Amino acid sequence: MRLSFEGRDHVPADGETVLDCLDRNQAGVPSFCRNGVCQSCLLCAQSGAIPPAAQQGLKATWRASGWFMSCMCRPTTDMQLSRVEAARTFVARVAEVALLSERVLRVRLTRPEGFDYAAGQFIQLRRPDGLMRPYSLASTAEAELLELHVALLPLGRMSQWLLGATGCAVELHGPFGECFYVPEIPPRPLLLAGTGTGLAPLFGVLRTALQSGHSAPLHLLHGAASRDDLYLWPALHELAASNSQLQIAGSTPGSHDDARITARSLQEQALASGLPLADSRIYLCGNPDFVRDLRRQLYLAGTPLDRIHADPFLAPGNKPD
Questions:
Q1: Number of domains in the chain
Q2: CA-CA distance, 246 to 240, in Å (whole number)?
Q3: What's the CATH number where 45 sits?
Q4: What is the DSSP code string of 42-78?
Q5: Is it true that the peptide bond before 186 is cis, omega within 30 degrees of 0?
Q6: 32 found inside a domain
Q7: Are residues 136 and 196 in the same domain?
Q8: For 198-222, what is each residue's pLDDT tens digit?
Q9: What contacts 206, CB < 8 A, 6 or more positions away?
Q10: Using CA atoms, how far apart are residues 252 and 195, in angstroms rounded to an integer?
C-alpha cells in the first residue's frame, strides 16, 4: 500500500494514519489537534478509498470533492493525494493585547480586506515563524477588529508570544466551523454552554443573536476553575440586565456572593435549565470531555444532533504547546 504525495511515494506502517506517515517522511502537512476537529490537516484524495471517519463533520461539498482529514485516515488502499485550500489566507496585524484575567488574553487583530465570517467560527492564526494555532472569533461579523480570547499558558509558545506581539504581522487562515447563530422564524430557544475560553465563540453567537432581535429565551452558562476565570462576567451581567430574554449562570468551585454563580456542574445546569430541549438550538464549546458528554446527554434528552453545535477546544496533538 502506497501514498503518493507531491511526486513521492510513502509506505504507511501498520495502523498509521496518513498524517503520521507524511509527518514521518517530512512532507510538511500542517496539523494541530490530530483529533479530527481543527481541520488543519485537510488533504484531497485524487484516487483511493477514504474511510468514513476521515470525512465525518466535513461539508458535503468537501466530501464530494474527495477532501478528508489526514489525521483520521488509516488507509486501506493506495491513495493519490494532493493539498487543498479549504479557505483563503489573509495578512493581519496584532492591534491590541490585554489581560481579561490572569489566564486569558484578549487579542485584537486588524481585519483584512475581504475577510468575511460569522461570529463563533474559528481561524488558524500563523505567526511569522510558521507556528499555527486555531482560535475562535468572539467579535461580531461587522466589527472592525477581530477579537480572540487566548488561554495564557505558562509554557504556551503562541500565547506567550502574543503577550508582546502588538504591531506584529500574522496570517489568518479561514474562517472554519459551523458554530454560529442561525436565524429562524419563529426563533428557537438557545442554550450556550462553555468552559474556559470556550466562552469566546459563545459570546460572539450571543451578541449576534441579540443584535438580530432574537426574542426566544437565551441561556448562557460558563464554567471555570475559579471565580476570576469567569472573565467576562461583568459584560454578561450588563447584557442580561438589558435583555430580559437572557439568563446567565456561572459554574466554579466554592461559594459566592452572586446567586448566579454556583458549584453545580455545567452539565447539571444545562439539563435543568427549564428550556424545551427538544425544540432548542444548542452551542457547546471548550473542554472536549465536557462537550462530548453534554452533547450525548442533550441528545438523549431529545435535542436532535443537527441542532447541537459542538466546538471542543483541544491542545496540540502529540506536540508541546
A1: 3
A2: 5
A3: 3.10.20.30
A4: EEEEEES---GGGGTT--HHHHHTTEEEGGG---SS-
A5: yes
A6: yes
A7: no
A8: 999 999 999 999 999 999 999 999 9
A9: 192, 218, 220, 239, 246
A10: 10
- Structural domain boundaries, residue 300: 190-312
Q: How many CB atoms lie within 10 A of CB 93?
A: 13
Tell me the three state secondary structure of residue 64. Answer: helix
Cell triple for residue 5?
504525495
Residues 265 and 207 in one domain: yes
Domain membership of residue 185 (yes or no) is: no
What is the model's pLDDT at position 269? 94
On whether both 35 and 59 belong to a single domain, the answer is yes
If we measure between CA atoms, which residue out of 128, 144, 135 comes closest to residue 105? 135
User: What pLDDT does 261 receive?
Assistant: 93
In a domain, 183, yes or no: no
Q: 236 — phi, psi (to 5°)?
A: -70, -40
**pLDDT, position 256:** 78
Q: Which three cell numbers stand for residue 242?
A: 438589558
Burial bucket for residue 168 (CB in 10 Å: 0-12, 13-18, 19+): middle
Q: Answer yes or no: are the C-beta atoms of 119 and 132 closer than 8 Å.
A: no
Cell numbers of 291, please? 462537550
Spans of the chain below 70 pLDDT: 86, 314-321
Q: What is the CATH number of the domain that holds 287?
A: 3.40.50.80
Q: Please, which residues have CB within 8 angstroms of residue 64's CB and are 6 or more apart in sequence?
A: none
97 and 48 in a common domain: no
CA-only gyration radius of the chain, Å: 20
Residue with cell 474527495: 66
Contact assessment for residue 255 and residue 169, using Cβ atoms and an 8 Å cutoff: no
Q: What is the 3-state secondary structure (H, E, C) of 179-243?
A: CCCCCCCCCCCEEEEEEHHHHHHHHHHHHHHHHCCCCCCEEEEEECCCHHHCCCHHHHHHHHHHC
Query: Which of 68, 83, 98 corresponds to the end of one domain?
Result: 83
